Amino acid sequence: MIQPEPEEKKRVSLLDKLPKLGRASQLMLLVGIFLIVFIPLWVINQQQPAKQVELRHELSLLEIILQTPTTKKETLEAEIKQVEARTEAAKAVFPSPDQSPEIINNLLELAESNGISVTETKVSTSKEPITVNENEIEYPVMTFNIKLQGQVPMFQNFILALDDNFPTCEVNDVKFVIAAEEGEEDTASLKIDVFCYEGSE
């Protein structure tokens, strides 16, 4: 029995698959599809260099940040302890405004060790502005007006010793009176300003 030969499949081109339009319309349709696909790709491609520059800049900033050494917690704690230690040392050097009796006793002992005597003392407390790092801060100041009796060289030794015993003091209004008659002692008067610690009031 003779069987019919299978029909050969016809090759269909893309143009044949398009709706039954004229050749010019089909061509326009293909150009339109091409433009719809090509234009977005072209726009994206045009934006790439600027985007790459921006991303490179961000990457360089991140590299700088990552290369910067981080401060460890232990380092910060050590610095805080150093500041606290310095503050405590300042408190130890600067007396408190309520320590005036103790300071007077120290002045009496210092005078006695230099062979002179304190004949009169007056104490007053005030606040004076002091410039610290371009900032004006008011600190309490104890002012001791004292009169001494003895000899002028001993007065000078006493004044020089004040710096060692009272590091925050300032000596003002020093007056020496040399005895006019033999057998009398020289006298001196001076004002000692002792700067105190602000937080110790």
Description:
The protein has five helices and four strands, in the order ααααββαββ. The mean pLDDT is 78. It has helices at residues 14-17, 23-67, 73-93, 100-113, 152-165; strands at 117-132, 135-150, 169-177, 186-195. Helix 4 (100-113) packs across helix 5 (152-165). It folds into two domains: 17-69; 94-200, Alpha-Beta Plaits (2-Layer Sandwich). The chain is α+β, with helices and mostly antiparallel strands and 201 residues long. Strand 3 (169-177) and strand 4 form a beta hairpin.
The pLDDT mean sits at 78
Which fold does the CATH topology of the largest domain refer to?
Alpha-Beta Plaits
Number of continuous helical runs:
5
Unreliable stretches, pLDDT < 50, 5 or more residues? Answer: none
* Strand ordering within the main sheet: 1-2-4-3
Portion of residues in beta strands equals 25-35%
- Find the structural class using helix and strand composition: alpha+beta
State the total count of DSSP E strands.
Answer: 4
CATH superfamily of the largest domain: Ribosomal protein S6/Translation elongation factor EF1B
Termini distance? 128 Å
**What's the shape?**
rod-shaped
Count of discrete structural domains: 2
Order of helices and strands: HHHHEEHEE
Largest sheet: 4 strands, antiparallel
Measured as a percent range, the helix fraction is 40-55%
The CATH class of the largest domain, by name, is Alpha Beta
Q: Write down the Rg.
A: 48 Å
**CATH architecture label name of the largest domain:** 2-Layer Sandwich
Task: Provide a compact summary of the structure.
The protein has 201 residues and is of the alpha+beta class. It contains five helices and four strands. α4 packs across α5.
